[in-house]
Design goal:
Blueprint: E1 2-14, E2 21-38, E3 41-46, H1 53-66, E4 74-81, H2 91-111, H3 118-132, H4 140-148, E5 151-155, E6 160-165, E7 171-176, H5 188-192, H6 195-206, H7 210-225, H8 230-237, E8 242-245, E9 252-256, H9 261-268, E10 274-279, E11 286-287
Parallel strand pairs: 3-4
Antiparallel strand pairs: 1-2, 1-11, 2-4, 2-5, 5-6, 7-9, 7-10, 8-9
EC number: 2.7.1.71
Family: Belongs to the GHMP kinase family. Archaeal shikimate kinase subfamily.
Protein name: Shikimate kinase
């Protein structure tokens, strides 16, 4: 048996590290995952040469949930990505969602077992990400924006939704500098000092004023983490609807319409790195 799935990344509206409350929305950059049954064991690989520890752990957790003997049944899983790694665009959430979802679907169909629910898949993926050390808060906001698409506002501590809805279709520009920034390596104490300011930004998100929330959150976290907030301000000056640091960096996102995208690309043209064009994703994880 073989299956394929794609899971999108997400961009940050509110980074949950400071307060435990977050917000994110799905974007068109994604991870595609292909899985097939093998005689035994777990074989994982990806097209970017990254560690497969998280992928392995995701499959192991699905095996444990279904009480599968890895000596009598196995899965080979491969991923390919248009989503930059370690850049604040939820690559870990997209990968863990994809691997857990596809593993559980194959096993449930192969053995005639009850499929995992959406939330069971998401929670297993988050548990694996925490255990692998690739997330600080569990990233419930990132995981659910990836899995369902659209925009979410979440209580990450309790893994609960405050808002979950489709987002209007916008063009998204992503500025990717020539370096990466892993969430698990970020200075948590430095970010939590700014919690009162992030709470103000979160109030905007709760009131569905997502773009004010994104702008303010981006400025706060860029300052805390030593990124150049001028990158976002340049985008706003060029006509962006919103712009800010995504996650703990290193990427910046700009929300734009047809009239402003080219001007924003011009404003970012002198920066070292690259600009990626994508769009809002309202579809989430989808079997192909």
């Amino acid at each position: 048996m073989m299956k394929k799935i794609r899971c999108p990344g997400s961009a940050t509206i509110i980074n949950a590290i400071a307060t435990g409350f977050g917000s994110a929305f799905g974007i068109g950059l994604d991870i595609e995952c292909e899985a097939k049954t093998i005689d035994e064991g777990i074989r994982c690989s990806n097209d970017v040469g990254a560690s497969t520890d998280l992928m392995d752990l995701c499959v192991e957790k699905v095996f444990e949930r279904y009480e599968i003997d890895g000596n009598a049944f196995g899965l080979e899983i491969k991923t390919k990505s248009s989503l930059p790694m370690a850049s604040g665009l939820s690559s870990s959430s997209a990968s863990s969602n994809a691997v857990v979802a596809i593993s559980s679907k194959i096993i449930s169909e192969e053995f005639g077992l009850k499929p995992l629910t959406d939330m069971e898949i998401i929670n297993l993926a988050i548990d694996a990400s925490i255990e692998a050390g690739v997330t600080i808060t569990g990233s419930f906001d990132d995981a659910t924006a990836s899995y369902f698409g659209g925009v979410v506002v979440t209580d990450n501590k309790n893994r609960e939704f405050i808002i979950r809805e489709a987002m209007d279709d916008y063009n998204i520009l992503v500025y990717m500098p020539n370096f990466h920034s892993k969430s698990g390596d970020s200075d948590v104490n430095r970010m939590r000092v700014l919690a009162p300011l992030v709470e103000t930004a979160f109030e905007f998100a709760k009131n569905k004023d997502y773009f004010k929330a994104l702008n303010l959150n981006g400025l706060i976290y860029a300052s805390a983490l030593g990124f150049d907030s001028g990158i976002a301000i340049d985008a706003l000056q060029a006509g962006a609807i919103a712009s800010g640091l995504s996650g703990t960096g290193s990427s910046f996102v700009a929300v734009c319409d047809e009239n402003s995208c080219d001007d924003i690309k011009d404003a970012w043209s002198s920066l070292e790195g690259r600009v990626i064009e994508t769009e809002v994703d309202n579809n989430g994880c989808t079997f192909l």
